[in-house]
Known about the structure:
This protein has 193 residues and is of the alpha+beta class. The protein has one domain: Porin. Helices cover 16% and strands 44% of the residues. It has an 8-stranded antiparallel barrel. The longest helix is centred in the N-terminal third of the chain and has 24 residues, at 2-25. The radius of gyration is 18 Å and the shape is elongated. It starts with a helix and ends with a strand.
Amino acid sequence: MWRLLTHVCLAVVSVCFVGTSAALAGDDAGMERFFYEKYEFRLGGFAHGVGSAEEGSADINAELVFHKLWGDPASQWNWLIPRPHIGVSVNTAGETDYAFAGALWTYDITRQIFVEGFVGGAVHDGTIEGDPSRSALGSRVLFHLGGSVGYRITNAWSVLFTFEHLSNGNAVLHAAPSNQGLNEYGLRVGYAF
């Protein structure tokens, strides 16, 4: 797992150095607007199930973020308009895989640094209950939420550190027999097109 994450980190750092020099050489006017008016594909690696029975493996994560469906990009309140996103995380050790969809909000701190929050749902192929070597997730359908801190390298490339949490929200879904949940931490590279 750590070997895969090391390779992903090295790839991200390489893209950052190459992309930053290209961004400094070019004009980045309208960088924020570009990201919201285009699709974005993200790919990266995650530490899987941190703090759970499934801790110690890695996920490959892919995500497609759609453009904003409405809103004025020039408005100071535009960050309140979410972008739809869908994705998948595949575990490299044969543990829990999941697919997710939801809404994602992006707030620009500077022209290049941004933060995101997201909420939605996920379906998984993991354990519901009864296997002590796996996380007992309690329900096939889960809440999927988390956030990212990102850096825009150019008008097309970005890098993100992301935290994801999957849970059945035991307080909401009282019928679920357990609620161990999964926490994922990782690095991703995004490409807007």
